[in-house]
Amino acid sequence: MEVDLEMPVTKHDVLGLLADPKLMKMGFTVGTITVNHQGYRNVYDYIQAEDIQVLPGKETVAFYDGRHNTLITQAGTPPLGLSDRVQILHECTHALIDISGLKVLRLHDEVAAYLAQVTYAQIESPSSPLRSLSAVGASPMGKLVFAMLQVVHSYGLHSSKGFGARIEDWDLVTLTKAVQAFPAYGHVKASEISVGAGVPVKNNQMRALRAALRQGQRN
User: Fold this and answer.
1) Would you state the pLDDT for residue 197?
2) Structural domain that includes position 144
3) What is the number of structural domains in the chain?
4) In the structure, what pLDDT confidence band is assigned to residue 3 with cuts at 50, 70 and 90?
5) Rounded Cα gap, residues 40 and 22, in angstroms
6) How far apart are CA 147 and CA 100, in angstroms?
7) What is the structure's pLDDT at 20?
8) CA atoms of 38 and 51, how far apart (whole Å)
9) 41 lies in some domain
10) What is the pLDDT of residues 148-168, one digit of tens each?
11) Number of C-beta neighbours around residue 7 at 10 A
């Protein structure tokens, strides 16, 4: 008799990623969006409180649904490899933006999420020197990742040099065009606002208390 040992990607796995100390090395701003450890800690708290629900999925990609406050994980088997973790981090970045309450351009939302996953990947597993890489002959996703990688290395987002960096407008325009060139986003207009609708605030008091306790422990 065969035993199916495959386990779904669950809330526990997502929280484990959001508690990764390597996220403390990330900090950058895209337009009005700030991506940093505190933002991911907020996502952690929302998921822990189940204001954002994590639902195990069966597709090859994860998906954050801001209108229903759910993060649907991709099919996989823990412990998660780097490719699975960066995919979840991408979706958690969308949640981070939703929690901030900002109305942002959809393409900026995607730029921030892709930059986050590429930055995390570079912190976790630095690649060969950028000058040896090329977008020539790459797949559409390869070209998109290459554009993000160029900016990550240019600003040093994966190192202390780039901590707190603000992506300049001309680089943001380049990255926005790179996202729009990917078929999945080809229909998105430059002026389109992100569709995320935020999350419930029923547990705000508990989150504020935990934040105050963490601040007290640091002081």
Assistant:
1) 56
2) 11-188
3) 1
4) very low
5) 11
6) 26
7) 98
8) 17
9) yes
10) 999 999 999 999 999 999 999
11) 12
What CA–CA distance (Å, rounded) separates 206 from 112? 28
193 in a structural domain: no
Find where tokens 């995320």 sit: 196
- 176-182 long-range Cβ contacts below 8 angstroms, 24+ apart: 176/105, 176/107, 176/108, 176/111, 178/143, 178/144, 178/147, 178/148, 179/107, 179/110, 179/111, 179/114, 179/144, 180/107, 181/140, 181/143, 181/144, 182/140, 182/141, 182/143, 182/144
Quick one: tokens of 198?
């935020």
pLDDT tens digit sequence for 33-74:
999 999 999 999 999 999 999 999 999 999 999 888 999 999
Q: Is residue 175 part of a domain?
A: yes
| Residue the block writes with tokens 């780039």 | 162
- In degrees and rounded to multiples of 5, residue 140 shows phi and psi of -55, -40
How much is the pLDDT for 132?
47
Residues 116, 189: contact at Cβ < 8 Å? no
**1: in domain:** no
**Per-residue pLDDT reduced to its tens digit, 94-122:** 999 999 988 999 999 999 999 999 999 99
pTM of the model as a whole: 0.87
Q: What totals of helices (H) and strands (E) does the chain contain, helices first?
A: 7, 6
> d(Cα 188, Cα 115) in Å, to the nearest integer?
19
Using pLDDT thresholds of 50, 70 and 90, give the confidence band for residue 13: very high
